[in-house]
Amino acid sequence: RISRNVKEPYWVRWWSRRSGCVTWCFKMEMFVCGFDFGGVAKRSWIAENSVLRSCSRVPNSTTSLRNNRSKQCHGATFGITMCTEASGGDSVSREDVFAMLNSEDGGDRARGINQARFLPPDQCLEAILTMVKDANPQLRYAAVSQLSVAGKADPERSFEILKDIVATDKEPTVQAAAADVISSLKLPGCYELLDELYGNTNDWMLRFSIISGLGEMGDPRAYELLIDALKNAGEEEPLIKIAALGALGELGDVRALDTIRGFVDDSDSIVADRASFAIGLLEKQSVE
Fold first, then answer.
1. Can you tell me the distance from the alpha carbon of 249 to that of 276, in angstroms, rounded to the nearest whole number?
2. What is the DSSP string of 122-177?
3. Which end is more exposed in the chain, N or C (fewer Cβ atoms within 10 Å of the end residue's Cβ)?
4. Which of 129, 148, 151, 149 is closest to 140 using CA atoms?
């Protein structure tokens, strides 16, 4: 949950390994509300209980959640357009999944990406890798995001493919998803690649994704990069500050305490809260 005053509402999104699905935030005049998704824009899946729902954005509406048909987000409603059960993995076959992935219909391919998670790990990875070059950037994004789990079946192969994606894909959100998955692999060469990417891009979403993953990645070399990101984030980049503060707390380097204390009275209450939380983590580390 992120609060920030902005002039116009817009979308931000990133992959959340903790929730196992894409996190979207609808940023509004006074409030940002996060929901977990597994797709992009007008065809997405909201992970809720055991059901993944394909949704579309309905702007300028305040319809409340009724009968699982819409989800209110402080003035923005997500209307339910399709439902797919996310349980019953035993009934999902490789043939069924690949039939969906090979369909000309984007909705079928999207459903195939979702259902692939119920296949054995090696088959799941095989299925997902067929989609990372899909012509539809939304589906590429969903497929790349799933590599945080599917890629564990063959981390080295996944890393090589992700390196190609961050270097060649023209969709910034796909690049950002790939960078975040790279940080989750924790393989030799991952940090060096992310450090180079961070220094060579001005795209805030890609930078945000890299920063968010570095804390969990746990490489002590990330300290200087995270401190630099925190100090140099502008007032228009509160998400960068929040991500850097969180990553520094996760990284556990107590040298960051003095810098982080400078943000506990930040005018943005969420930045201030994140700073306090990071201090708590680091002080616990210093005691232990």
1. 10
2. HHHHHHHHTTTT-S-HHHHHHHHHHHHHHGGGSHHHHHHHHHHHHHH---HHHHHH
3. C
4. 129
Q: What is the pLDDT of residues 34-58, one digit of tens each?
A: 333 333 332 233 333 222 333 333 2
**277, exposed or middle or buried, with CB in 10 Å at 0-12, 13-18, 19+?**
middle
Q: In whole angstroms, what is the distance from residue 60 CA to residue 83 CA?
A: 23
Q: Are 177 and 209 a contacting pair, CB within 8 Å?
A: yes
The least confident of 55-59, 131-135, 193-197, 217-221 is 55-59
The label of the residue with tokens 């996310």 reads 86
Give the least confident one: 24-28, 146-150, 196-200, 274-278. Answer: 24-28
- Which secondary-structure segment (H or E) carries 81? strand 76-85
What are the distances in angstroms from CA 137 to CA 43, 184, 277, 288?
12, 22, 36, 46
Q: Which residues contact 83 (CB under 8 A, 6 or more apart)?
A: 51, 52, 53, 54
Q: What is the pTM of this model?
A: 0.69
CB 226 within 8 A of CB 215: yes
CA 277 centroid distance within chain: 21
Task: Tell me the sheet residues that pair with 40.
Answer: 43
CA separation (Å) from 83 to 1, 46, 69?
26, 10, 10
Tokens 């228009």 locate to 236
Region class of 87: left (phi > 0), else alpha (psi between -120 and 50), else beta:
beta
- Given the DSSP bridges, would you call strands 21-27 and 10-16 parallel, antiparallel or unpaired? antiparallel
Distances (CA, A) of 279 to 257, 274, 282: 6, 9, 5
Residue 64: count of CB within 10 angstroms of its CB: 9
Amino acid identity of residue 218, one-letter, is: G
CB-facing half-sphere around the CA of 37: CA atoms within 13 A: 30
